[in-house]
Amino acid sequence: MGTNIYVGNLSYNSNEQGISELFEQYGTVHSVKVIEDRETGRSRGFGFVEMDAEGAAAAIEALNGADLDGRALKVNEARPREARPPRRW
């Protein structure tokens, strides 16, 4: 298993293919997932890339602040998801 990378400030025009091609310059990309809104199916402006540890470190260093589709990316190692209390209706 590789390192999971958070990629934020994505343009709504950014897609998994383009993100994969950008990160492949730094190492082997195992997976790319752009997070979408459940209601609209539109990108929520962030996603995750999983790649080998060595390539991940190089990608984070090189791509944090880099431009993709007119937006300055925010790239860092993903943190585990925090537990949230259950929703009440």
TrEMBL record:
Q: Does the keyword Metal-binding apply?
A: no
What GO molecular function annotation could you give as one example from this UniProt entry?
Answer: RNA binding
Domain named RRM: which ranges? 3-80
Family matches, as Pfam families: RRM_1 (PF00076)
Q: What keywords appear on the UniProt entry?
A: RNA-binding
The family database entries (InterPro entries) matched by this protein are listed as: Nucleotide-bd_a/b_plait_sf, RBD_domain_sf, RRM_dom, SLIRP/GR-RBP-like
Q: Tell me the protein's name.
A: RNA-binding protein
Q: What is the lineage of its organism?
A: Bacteria, Pseudomonadati, Thermodesulfobacteriota, Desulfarculia, Desulfarculales
